Amino acid sequence: MPKDPTGDPKAHSADEFKDGMSGSCLCGSITVTINDPELFIKKRGHLCHCSNCRKVAGSYVASNLLIEQEKVSIVDRDGTLKTYEDKDSLSGNPVYRSFCSTDGNPVKSETAAYPGKVVLKMGMYPRIPQPEAEGFGLHKHDWQGQHHGIDTYEIKWAGPEKKLMAKGRPYHFSICHKLLDIGKVLNRTENHVDGLLQPRAAGENPQDKSLFNSLLQQDLEEHDLTRSRLIYEAKGAIGAGSETVACAFAVTTFYVFNQPEIRARLVSELMEAITEPETARDYEALAHPPYLSACIEEGLPLAYGTVEPRDRAYDGGLLIHGD
């Protein structure tokens, strides 16, 4: 029996885990250590309300942490770590769910959608970092309430036509499926950031015209130029640039196709403007058809971004003009 059978996370200060944190399964056979000094520096991990994660957690929500494999070490003392191949996943990629075969404790998950990373099941740890997001927010029970201070992604399966409702708006599954591969994009971005930081550490100045190299050339504090900070900037840039565009495409297309007279007029104009459909059109060729431009301009306001409350107080303390 543990020293504190209540498992009170408040009994453990975040400073206790400044070099990392270890957790074990119920029987103690499997110990998983997270080797990350930034584990409690910022929000980490996510809550998931999808059906499969709830089943694995044995609860109404699962607490997960997606992290690089090299930051995780696993000791399987009695050889009890077993893996189940879950083929019924939203992305279409099998999810390999590992657990202790003695006590049934979920340990981790791995999938090709996130190469080089592992999803840890955080219930085995003495303290859990505040999550940065929760997925499938529409799947909450009525009595659960809200988790304040974290982003909620409302994704809902809408039947055999393979459509999703994401953040309350209709997205065709084909678009969302591409967004589910964002992990691969972020992985390539991390490699790109590493390729810039390594020469910089050696005193070299890479002549790269990317967003990240431009940041490195600015007169910024060193803590704003760390690997983790640049990667978080990448997540923000990629997320803002992909989801917003996908939303605009999906919403505008829906309204055009949902109104036959608008669709017919637009198709007629495009057939006149594009005499050779098999030939790709450049921007100039598509910038002049007036009805196409009107549809785009009308569609953009319908594809509004996510609305959320923001604290108007400056988090750096009192800011006085002239200082």
Automatic annotation (TrEMBL):
GO terms for molecular function: carbon-sulfur lyase activity; heme binding; iron ion binding; monooxygenase activity; oxidoreductase activity, acting on paired donors, with incorporation or reduction of molecular oxygen. Residues 21-154 form the CENP-V/GFA domain. SUPFAM superfamilies: Cytochrome P450 (SSF48264), Mss4-like (SSF51316). Pfam families: GFA, p450. InterPro entries: CENP-V/GFA (IPR006913), Cyt_P450 (IPR001128), Cyt_P450_sf (IPR036396), Mss4-like_sf (IPR011057). Keywords: Lyase, Metal-binding, Zinc. PANTHER family: CENP-V_GFA DOMAIN-CONTAINING PROTEIN, GFA DOMAIN-CONTAINING PROTEIN. Belongs to the Gfa family. This is CENP-V/GFA domain-containing protein. The lineage of its organism: Eukaryota, Fungi, Dikarya, Ascomycota, Pezizomycotina.
